[in-house]
Write a structure and sequence with these properties.
The chain is of the alpha+beta class. Helix content is about 20%, strand content about 25%. This is Aromatic ring-hydroxylating dioxygenase subunit alpha.
Length: about 425
């Protein structure tokens, strides 16, 4: 049955104006509630989305030296990413070709030799993944080491960020699910609606703080919360004061069905941007690190520029720092979050820079988001609640839900 149409706005814009209104024009159903807690739904998310998408692992700077490695786990799959002796980044399943033993047991570190040696039976692999040594006294007839390399994983670097894709030959295949076209690089995974971070020097930034958190909610709950601001006035009171349009429960000017009444009003509660006198996201709204020199006046005025790569990360450019958030599903009702604050190299040694002021505000916002996502999760198991309904301002949730549905459909036989 089709949902009932929403009541029309008091203001009836003409056709061209209506085209610019972002909101949904009728009620839309959410994903079914079991999609957020059911074991089968969780496995389907892994198979259709997480095992077939570009996923953020770390920054290149985290693997700066030859022989440096990190392991990364998503679902049941564990990957090792390393920099070989020539400086090339490579990724493999963290699995020995002999009997499937885990190879690297630590989460990160530096290899002791230019070999990856299985801790079980000492099969050894070059850092290119080739099997080079088998300690057995003899080899079976016809056994060729060249036939048993490590399972390679596609790897892509975007602006200093390292991504992997578990699809075989993902660097070469075309992603039939993607409107962006070829899946051969992580860049193709970014939402076309994302902001342009070209003027931020992402490659040269250094880490000032890392926050790691386990949230007791499904990964989709977090992305839904990210994609709307109806919750902002009640959940993010300080953020709503800093970004006044958030205090109206909106993300941008054209989220308001009556936006045309204020089309010429550049006050931040209508146009977006930070409150008058504020410069960045911090406790006092002031900058506390060197401002990036290459930003345009519009980028400075905006206060925040978002770029999103579903399902694993988003990045936010502010005038004096960049914040990244990485997600990974830990179970049907649990999600891991890693947030990192990145600054110009000179900021961390600058005695006038108050990094804590910046980090404290961003941490507060993330903690508020995590807490309300957990509240959302707790209510979803009602036997009466089969699905929810979206309001006009939740148009990006609808777009996200369709993104999920399309990938599930593509996986169906």
């Amino acid at each position: 049955m089709q949902p009932p149409a929403l009541q029309p706005s008091v203001l009836q814009p003409n056709a061209s104006e209506r085209d610019r209104y972002n909101g949904l024009t009728r009620a839309e159903a959410t994903l079914p509630s079991s999609a957020y807690w059911g074991g089968e739904s969780y496995q389907r998310d892994l198979d259709a989305i997480w095992y077939r998408s570009w996923l953020l692992v770390c920054r290149e700077a985290d693997l700066a030296q030859p022989l440096a490695f990190r392991t990364f786990r998503v679902g049941t799959q564990e990957i090792v990413v390393l920099r070989d002796e020539t400086g090339e980044l490579r990724a493999f399943h963290n699995t020995c070709r002999h009997r499937g033993s885990q190879l690297c047991q630590e989460s990160e570190g530096r290899l002791k030799a230019r070999l990856i040696t299985c801790p079980y039976h000492a099969w050894s692999y070059s850092l290119r993944g080739d099997l080079v040594r088998v300690p057995s006294k003899s080899l079976p007839e016809g056994f060729d080491k060249a036939d048993h390399p490590l399972y390679r994983v596609a790897l892509s670097v975007w602006r200093g960020f390292v991504f992997v894709n578990l699809q075989e030959d993902a660097n070469l295949q075309e992603d039939a699910n993607s409107q962006e076209g070829a899946a051969g690089s992580a860049q193709a995974s970014f939402d076309p609606a994302s902001g342009d971070l070209g003027n931020w020097p992402l490659e040269t930034l250094v880490s000032g703080h890392v926050l790691r958190k386990v949230m007791n909610c499904n990964w989709k709950i977090f992305w839904e919360n990210f994609n709307e601001c109806l919750h902002c006035p009640g959940v993010h009171k300080d953020l709503s004061r800093l970004v006044p349009i958030y205090g109206r429960g909106l993300m941008s000017r054209h989220d308001d069905p009556e936006w045309v009444r204020h089309a010429d009003n550049d006050a931040p509660e209508f146009s977006g941007g930070l409150r008058v006198g504020a410069e960045t996201w911090s406790r006092d709204g002031k900058t506390h690190a060197p401002v990036f020199a290459g930003l345009t006046p519009a980028e400075r005025a905006a206060g925040q520029t978002y770029a999103t790569s579903l399902p694993s990360m988003f990045i936010v450019g502010h005038v004096d720092y960049v914040r990244t958030v990485r997600l990974v599903p830990l179970g049907p009702e649990q999600t891991g979050l890693v947030a990192e604050w990145l600054f110009a190299p000179g900021a961390l040694g600058d005695p006038s820079a108050d990094i804590d002021n910046i980090v404290a505000f961003g941490t507060q916002v993330l903690e508020e988001d995590a807490a309300i996502c957990e509240v959302n999760q707790k209510g979803l198991r009602s036997m009466r609640h089969k699905a929810g309904v979206l309001m006009p301002e939740e148009y990006d949730l609808h777009r996200f839900h369709n993104w999920v549905r399309e990938r599930h459909t593509a996986l169906s036989p």
